[in-house]
Amino acid sequence: MTNKTLFHLVAAFICGTVLCHQPVKAQVSLSGTNYTQNFNGIASGLPSGWSVRTNASGTSLGTAVTFNTAAVSWGTQSGQFANGAGTTNNSLAAAAGTESTAQQSAFTNRCPIIRQTASYGNPGAAFVFQIANSSGLSNLIFSMDFILLKTNPASTTWTVDYAVGNSPATFTTLGTYTDPGVFGATTQTYSLGTDANDQTNNVWIRIVALSAATGAGSCDTFGIDNFSLNYAGPSAPTISSSPASSTNGVLTAAALAVVVSGAPPLGYQWFKGTNALSDGGNISGSTNDTLRLSNLLHTNAGDYTVVITNASGSVTSSVATLTVVGFAIVPLSPTNTLAGMAVDVPLAFIDNQSPVTTVSGSSGNQGVLPDGNILGTAGDNSGTVTLVPLAGTSGVVRASLTASDGSFSTNAFFSLLVVPSANVLFNDHFDYPNDSVTAGSLGIWRNHSGPAGELAVTNKALRVSRSFSEDACATLLGAPFATNGSAVLYSRFTVKFTDLPTRTGNYFAHFKDAGTAGHAARIWASTANTNTAGTFRLGIGNANTSTATTAQFPLDLNLNTNYVVVTRLVVSNGVSTLWINPATESEPGVTAADPVTNLVAVTSYAFRQDGSEGNMLVDDLAVATTFHDALGTAPSILIQLIGTDLVLTWDNVSFYLQASADVTGPYDYVLGATSPFTNDVTSAPVQFFRLTTQAPPPPIGN
Q1: CATH class of 3-232
Q2: Mean pLDDT across the stretch 137-146?
Q3: 142: closest CA among 207, 84, 89, 92?
Q4: Single pTM value for the model
């Protein structure tokens, strides 16, 4: 076997046909507005995009077969697709149909023909034209000559159809042609349907014998010629909706959009005035149909246009004027202060074109911070708001500020964390609207894992649900608490379970580091080891506990009942302890027994949602450096008479000593008094003492 023969066999195998030494040529890519084909070059093979096939049907293109490029007489008796003479000689003289084989061979006007036999193409013969796509094209209309070159008793009805798709299985019929029984050409014109317009896939046109010839005897010799396809070419872009003018405030976002029709690909270029824009800074989409500007400033104001281009032309939109008004308050971070202590929040203004003259505020928690305790001042580009929370209160306040330059007002929001003593690092009563806790707290709580916005407040309690998986945390004052320090941290909250955890359960609250995996003092919920059906237990684990039964508190807990849960974490060694409904730190608790496998530099406290932990409501959270401050109980005071000295000792240094000559007061601060405080009873008058969390006012003149 020669190499040439081997090549032909491989080609035949690839084409899926026998001896297909003339494989289907590449599909045709249309351009302009017209495609024509006279087939006069078929002595070298069929033109690109054209193939001849057998076994075609209403659901199949058929199998590509060999086209005989040698000149063949109209009267051939062999079943084949072949190179035949047309019905005119050099387009000068009409043929009579009686020309000899030699005369036919001399015709320069050629056309592809078929002689069907009982075993070849009867039915299933097809001339097929493959178009790569019709992107940007429309109104496809073609005409061609159907030619009867040899009349025989059997007559074939040819169907003209088309299909869209790279591997079509359905075809749309455009018409039929039945042999007229006389030599000659008949020109017919067909219009493809609208589904052939603007297609990114192949478009196919077929002349196919879908049914067997009628009549006894041999089949006619049939050919096609002078194919001409006309179509509307790519259209230049036209704008159906120009960008709209708008007025926007400082730091808001603007989007300018244009709606365009026209042949793809379309190119976009946005301009501000005469300057072409590029992406960067607060600009994106400068070469797309929508220009986006974020964090607007007055410098972004101006006239905007967009130029759209394609291969057929370009168009420029009408002018859209962007007006930027007002100013903004620099975003405020959450602030904290002691109950009863004033805190000043500095304000800065962004892009104000005239001096800011007034600042006012309102509180979302009147019980902690009344509106009357918010005072604001402003001048030019800066200002101050002073907030004085009520003594003896605690929690988070959502405050709203309004600044005005006399003609324009703007708002900003921030959170104020009010703690009852210097030993309290965080406390929250979840007095927020029913919504995501991260949104409601204005940044006090933040998402650190899972889908944001799932951990929510419901009726002023934090809903921790096994139906969700968000983790959220709140930063502690004074964080981070390093592992080489002496910090001992306590957490306290009330919890009411509404649905049981699973037997193994999982943890739902813990201290954490600045990352996402450094956890400590994890509180577990589980139904393991309970004595009564329908109850559960809580337990605690060290840094990386892996079992819900580690250090369980030996008490069965009921659903729909509030419990006070207190934990202690010794940061330096990672050991954690848990109490339920304690009154003092000396009461029995449980200390985690699993090993501490990592130490955590604590930055925040967190709640976690998981499918096995049950459903619960959490409220009255406090994190502190003493048991008393976490639990919220009054400090104990020890009174001793040592000689002539009365010695007062208290264990919470955040409380201040006051004294009065009468039990009903008034009480004055004992300035500089710290625990232990000594008072000489022989020289001092009779006095009554009390402790308060309210700090003394600063000296006059400070």
Answers
A1: mainly beta
A2: 95
A3: 207
A4: 0.55
